[in-house]
Amino acid sequence: MSFEDNEVYYNNVRVVSADALPQDVAIQFSSRSRQNVVRLHDVGGSGRVSIDLRQAVGCKVLIGSGNTVVSGALNITFPMNAGRPTAGAFVVIGHANSFTGGASIQAPFTAGQGITIGSRNLIAPGLSVRGSNHAVFDLATGLQSNSEVGSTIGSRNWLGNGVNVFNRGGIGNDSVVALGAIVNKDWSATGNVALAGMPARVVSEGIAWTREMYYSTLEDVPSPDLTIGITTYERPLSLRRALDSVLSQKLPAGSQVEVLVVDDGSDSASFKELWAALGDLPRTKGFTVQGLCNPEPTGGPSAGRNSVIDVARGSHVMFLDDDDQLAEGALTPLLEYIASSTAQRTSLRYRRAGRSILLAPAMRHERLDIVDSLWTMLPPSIYRTSDIRGYRSKFPEGVHYGEDNEFVLHFSVRAENFTALCDRDYVIIGDPVAGEGAHLSQGKGSWEEFLRGVISHLDRLAKIIDGADIPAYVRDRLAAKCLIGRGITSYELARRLGDMDDSDLAADLLSAYSGIINDSIPEAAILRFARENSLEREIAAVVGNDLDALRAARAYTGAAS
Predict the structure, then answer these.
(1) What CATH number is given to the structural domain containing 60?
(2) 12-26 b/e with 16+ CB inside 10 Å = b?
(3) Rounded CA gap, 240 and 236, in Å?
(4) 108-151: pLDDT as tens digits
(5) Is 434 part of a structural domain of the chain?
(6) Are residues 231 and 100 part of one domain?
(7) 84 and 128: one domain?
(8) DSSP-assigned beta bridge partners for residue 195
(9) Domain presence at residue 435
(10) Measured between alpha carbons, how far is 195 from 187 in angstroms, rounded to an integer?
C-alpha cells in the first residue's frame, strides 16, 4: 500500500497512512497504483466505503459531504482490462446521498471517462454502475460500437433495489427508477419521470416523490420557505459575520429557512473550529444550518453554488458570499413577499461601500421586463428553486470573471416573471474582515489575463443571448445592455484599452471585443444604445475596431469632464 505515490485527503487533510483513515473507510493500492487522487469526507451510517485502486493509474475519486451508507459497503473499483490498468478514469459522488445498502461502482476503463452521481439521492441496496469490459465492433464499418462515455446519475432521485446503470446510461433529476431496472440509455436530460423495465423506459412523466408516505398531496409536504446558500473559503471571521447576520433575523411565525454553507477546501485551524461549531451557532427559531464541502477545491464559488442548487430543500433560494450580510430586519419582509409572489426572480436593493444600489424609484417593482430586471446581475436575488432546476441554470465552474452574471442571464432569458424589491436595503455587499483573503471569484494573474477573461466572459454572454428563445427586438436590447453596457460601463473596457501603453496588445483585445459586438448586435441597436447613453464616440471607435479613434474619444471625454 502506497500513500506516497498517491494523494489521499480525508476532510481536506492529506492522509499518509491507512491508520489515519476511519475504520469504515478502506483504500487499497498495489505496486502499480500511482498518481491517483482520492478526496472524501465523513460518511455517516453503519456501512463502510471501500475504494480499490490496485489497478488504477492517474485516476480520481471524489466524494462530497453528508453522504450516508446505512449498511453494507459502497464499493468503488477500477478494473484491469486484458492485463492493462485503468488510467485517467474518475468517480465523483456529490453530497447528502443515502445508500441504504451495498452498492457497486466500477469505473470505466477508458481515460477521461467516469461515473458521476449527484446529490440527495435515495439509493436502495444493490445499485450497480459500471462501464464496458469488452469491445463490440460493427462488422459493416469495423468500428467499435460500445465505446465508453461513462454514466451519470443526477440529483434527488429514488433508485429502487437492484438498479443497474451501464455504459452510456444516464438518469436525470427528481425521478424514480423501479426495482431491477436496467438503464442502458441516457435519460439524463429527462427529469421528473419514472423509469422501469429491462431496458428501462419512461413509464410515467410529470412526477415528484418524497421519502414520506403519509402526505396525501404535494402541497402538504413541508419544505423550508427559503434556502440561503453561502460559499466560503478560509475566511472564518467573515463567514461568522455573514452567518450572524442571517441567523439573528426574526422570522414570521411558522417560517422555516435552510442555510447551506459550502466550503471550498479550507484546512486552517481557525476555520475548522468554526466549521465544527456550525450546528451550535446561536439562532432564532426556524433556522437549520448544514455544512457541505466541495469534493475537491475549485478556486471559485461556482461549484459551491451549484451544490446549493442540487441540495436545497427550500421553495426559493438565494446566494450570498461569505463577505456579504443580510441587512438588519431584511428577512421578514422577504419571506412575506415570496409567500404570495409568483415572481421567478426577485432582485434586491443592496448596499455597497455605504451606498444603496437600486432600480429607481425606491419601491417594489412588479412585472418587470427582462431588460429592466437586469439592473443588477449579482447573485443576491431570490429565485424559485423549481425554475432554476427546470431551466438547468448552473454557475459556470472554472470561470473567474462574471460567472454570476452568466448564471443570472441564463436563468433570465428562460423566465418570464421578474420583480425588484427596492424599498429598502436587503443585502450588504462588503469586504472581508481585515486580514482575510480576497473573494473566491477574484481572478488571479496579470492585467492582460484579466482583460482577456472579461472579453471571454462577454463572448459567453453573447452566446447565451444568441441561443435564447426571445423576440428579436428584446434580444437586441438585451445584447446592447449586456455586451456594450457591461463592457464599456461596468468593466470600463474602452477606458482600459484606450489607456494601455502596449498598443499591440490593446489592438488585439479591441479587435476581439469589437468582433463580439458586431457579430451580436444590429447596427441600429448599437446606435440607439450609444445615443441613449451619450457614448457615441467611444462606441463608434469600438465598433469600428479603431484604437486611435478610441484614444481620441478618451481624450475628448477626459477634456469634457
Answers:
(1) 2.160.10.10
(2) beebeeeeebeebbe
(3) 6
(4) 988 999 999 999 999 999 999 998 878 899 999 999 888 888 99
(5) no
(6) no
(7) yes
(8) 177, 202
(9) no
(10) 9
Of 205, 237, 258, the residue at which a domain comes to its end is 205
Position 561 confidence tier, pLDDT thresholds 50, 70, 90: very low
> Which of the four pLDDT bands, split at 50, 70 and 90, describes residue 1?
low
Q: Is the pLDDT of residue 560 over 70?
A: no
Is cis: bond before 236, omega within 30 of 0?
no
C-beta pairs of 544-551 under 8 Å, 24+ apart in sequence: 544/514, 545/510, 545/511, 545/514, 545/515, 547/497, 547/498, 547/503, 547/506, 547/507, 547/510, 550/494, 550/497, 550/498, 550/510, 551/498
**449-472, pLDDT tens digit by residue?**
989 999 999 999 999 999 999 999
What is the H or E stretch that residue 26 is in?
strand 25-28
Amino acid making up residue 526: I
**For residues 396 and 402, what is the distance between their CA atoms, to the nearest angstrom?**
9
Domain assignment present for 393: yes
Q: Which three cell numbers stand for residue 240?
A: 461568522
C-alpha cell of residue 237: 471571521
pLDDT class of 557 with cuts at 50, 70, 90: low
What's the structural domain count of the chain?
A: 3
CA atoms of 266 and 279, how far apart (whole Å): 18
* CA gap 408, 402 in Å, rounded: 10
Phi-psi region of 157 (alpha: psi -120 to 50; beta: other; left: phi over 0): beta
- Judgement on whether residues 413 and 514 belong to the same structural domain of the protein: no
Kindly list the distances between the CA atom of residue 125 and the CA atoms of 21, 72, 73, 118, 179, in Å, as whole numbers in the listed order.
25, 8, 10, 17, 10
132 and 257 fall within a common domain: no
Sign of CA pseudo-dihedral 218, 186, 41, 226:
negative
Same domain, 307 and 357: yes
| 49 & 192 share domain | yes
479 and 372 in a common domain: no
Same domain membership, residue 323 and residue 285? yes
DSSP 3-state assignment of 283? coil
**Distance between CA 376 and CA 177 in Å, rounded?**
41
C-alpha cell at 267: 484546512
Q: What are phi and psi of 411, to 5 degrees?
A: -65, -45
Please identify, among 205, 237, 266, the residue that sits at the C-terminal boundary of a domain.
205
Domain of 292, CATH number, reads: 3.90.550.10
How many Å apart are CA 209 and CA 192, to the nearest integer? 9
Residue 441 lies in a domain: no
Q: How many helices (DSSP H) and strands (DSSP E) are in the chain? A: 14, 37
Per-residue pLDDT band at 444 (split at 50, 70, 90): low
Gap between the Cα atoms of 231 and 247, Å rounded = 16
Grid cell listed for 407: 448564471
HEC assignment per residue over 285-331 = CCEEEEEEECCCCCCCCHHHHHHHHHHCCCCEEEEEECCEEECCCCH
Taking the C-alpha atoms of residue 99 and residue 68, their distance in angstroms, rounded to an integer, is: 6
- What do you get for the CA distance between the two ends of the chain, in Å? 70
Which domain, by its residues, includes 274?
Answer: 222-429
